[in-house]
Amino acid sequence: MSATAYVLILDFGSQYTQLIARRVREAGVYSEIHPYNKGMEAISRNAPAAIVLSGGPASIYGQASPQLEKEILSAGVPILGICYGLQAIAHTLGGRVEPADDREYGRANLSYINPNSWLLEGIRPGAQVWMSHGDKVMMLPEGFEVTSSTEDTAFASFESPDHRICGVQFHPEVVHTPDGATILQNFLRKIAGLKPDWSMASFIETTCEHIRDRVGDAHVVAALSGGVDSSVMVVLLHKAIGDKLHPIFVNNGLLRKNEAQEVLSTFEDLGVQLDYVDAADRFLGQLRGVIDPEKKRKIIGQEFIRIFEEESARFPDVKFLAQGTLYPDVIESVSFKGGPSATIKTHHNVGGLPERMNLELIEPLRELFKDEVRSLGAELGIPDSILWRHPFPGPGLAVRILGEITPERVAVLQEADAIAIEEIRKAGLYRNIWQAFVVLLPVRSVGVMGDERTYEHVAALRAVEATDGMTADWYPIPHETLGVISNRIINEVRGINRVVYDISSKPPSTIEWE
Ligand SMILES: Nc1ncnc2c1ncn2[C@@H]1O[C@H](COP(=O)(O)OP(=O)(O)OP(=O)(O)O)[C@@H](O)[C@H]1O
Ligand SMILES: O=c1[nH]c(=O)c2[nH+]cn([C@@H]3O[C@H](COP(=O)(O)O)[C@@H](O)[C@H]3O)c2[nH]1
Ligand SMILES: NC(=O)CC[C@H](N)C(=O)O
Ligand SMILES: [Mg+2]
Q1: Residue 377 CB–ligand 1 contact under 6 Å
Q2: 3-state secondary structure of 500
Q3: Does 230 carry a binding-site annotation?
Q4: What is the distance between the alpha carbons of residues 112 and 146, in angstroms, rounded to a whole number?
Q5: What does pTM read for this prediction?
Q6: ipTM of model
Q7: pLDDT of residue 337
Q8: What atom in ligand 1 is closest to the CA of residue 324?
Q9: Which segments in the chain show pLDDT lower than 70?
Q10: Catalytic: 208?
Q11: What ligand is nearest to the CA atom of residue 254?
């Protein structure tokens, strides 16, 4: 994205890092998230107009805690430290950070605001802010000025004499800090002098330019599932490089009922030529006897890549593989060294990739969230019927059949899932729900059907609401609809005699069961 002024966000492992990126984009400025220890590398590659240091779970004075690269502070770029980021600035410049006697979590109010503050311009004393810290700055670096305090925290924010380095102990990126957007705007506009000129339209333009530069005369194969992300990615790349793009759609035998036919006809209508690979036997063969969820994911990730490599031999000069990877796929799969965020599950398209791969990756949506991808898709003119499909994971029904995957179990789950979705659509709920599906449990229970004893599988219905999939709550489908779904599944699908409803949120559960 070399032509665009951007904000470099250095991630110290906060749960909110991705929210910072969003807020910056919402303020009309492009941003990129990099690991905390790769800041200088990013700066030397492409100088940012401003830097934000995220929060993080560690204590800056602790052994092996993620440290701020000292040169960042003298790079001449305006810097905003948030929570751990503020503590890192104070610690690195000779201030003092210590464990607090009174830890502060949740609501707090700024009892004092320094009228000289550039960052807090327009914010009134008493403003609510959201806190989440157990450590405190006890002494400021030389020359720095305190710009606000709460009852428990003397140094709730500070600024350097020239106002270009500042920090806030509270979290301006969360909605519970009502003035957070103003504070971030003050930083971006007043302190860093950035203009709000980033939009989805400019994203399309710069991304296309960037892809054309990178690809040159080479050809690109694209992994297309027919889902939201890869459909948007394919249309974007097609705009950038035209016929040098070869989308490949793989039937891994783990798709939903009739999905392969539907995807083929949708893209035929859109006038996009697909390379269709029916590899159901290959995937199901590899997965035989495997029950460990992480093993399933890795096997599927590797098999996908092998197929893409094999297929790419059918086209001339293929050097790249394009995928519809999004930011949440990355953050939940990767944990970088010394750091902070944990691996939750290996998304097949990120951590599931084999170590040696002959194709270079192109992932133009890697920094975006699903709702942003949907608005990008709308900007590209993609129909709502594609953009508003529920997300469906690449490993497909493999992570919804707990225990061993067999062709019979796949068929049972496909039927049950199709009934649930059909009834959810009929009830007019499809678009209110982020994702709904059925999970087949490796548990059997006793039932009675037509005076006969049955001993069959239990199915779980899951429906969640979310905006980006990073957090989610279970969706309250009305009892009447639940009743119809359960009734139809038990009556129409042989092999299931009991349906339960999953009422867990994420966290502490996840959306998929594996
Ligand atoms: N059956 C498939 N054939 C080819 N590529 C696939 C397939 N399934 C997944 N992929 C690749 O893996 C990526 C990640 O899958 P993921 O499910 O997150 O995205 P999606 O399918 O494009 O969108 P959605 O999240 O809406 O389902 C896809 O963007 C695509 O590049
Ligand atoms: O393409 C994908 N490959 C995967 O390996 C994968 N695992 C989870 N998901 C989807 O990601 C979102 C969050 O899921 P979890 O709460 O289960 O982690 C939900 O939308 C999941 O469906 C995946 N998508
Ligand atoms: N949210 C944060 O960044 C917390 C920073 C640090 N771990 C503390 O507890 O004070
Ligand atoms: Mg998908």
Answers
A1: no
A2: strand
A3: yes
A4: 10
A5: 0.77
A6: 0.88
A7: 34
A8: 29
A9: 1-4, 330-346, 348-357
A10: no
A11: 1
